[in-house]
Amino acid sequence: xxxxxxxxxxxxxxxxxxxxxxxxxxxxxxxxxxxxxxxxxxxxxxxxxxxxxxxxxxxxxxxxxxxxxxxxxxxxxxxxxxxxxxxxxxxxxxxxxxxxxxxxxxxxxxxxxxxxxxxxxxxxxxxxxxxxxxxxxxxxxxxxxxxxxxxxxxxxxxxxxxxxxxxxxxxxxxx
Length: 175
What we know:
This protein is mostly helical. It is built from 10 helices and no strands. α5 (72-88) runs antiparallel to α6. It has a domain at 124-175. It is elongated and about 55 Å long.
């Protein structure tokens, strides 16, 4: 049965228009009614609402998808979208926790690292954001011209991250 659901979902998303997500949502709702606990259905419906601008609605679907056992690349993508949506809704601490959990499960994910950096920036930690991007660059970009500078990139990343750590020590609202 899951193969049939996957085929339906694939067809719906092949036809979607990101500028008008209502037809996609309308196509997903009957599948959700038939399979209200199916992890991918929950994830895809959440993503459709998210793309449509109904971010608060999307959160519950993302949470339930992960609770119901979403796995693999879909789980990684769900974490990314969930963490980003939390950030967009101003729930920065929740976003940071979501990305920390996601990075623990998917430590090699460049996409998660990039979007986590956006949350660091939104949290008022621009140095940590840039530092994390420099580490991603050093760890995941293969370019002969960059290879000799990777130790310098990592050193600069450590330095930048330490600046935000120092700021946290002197700010009264430090966590």
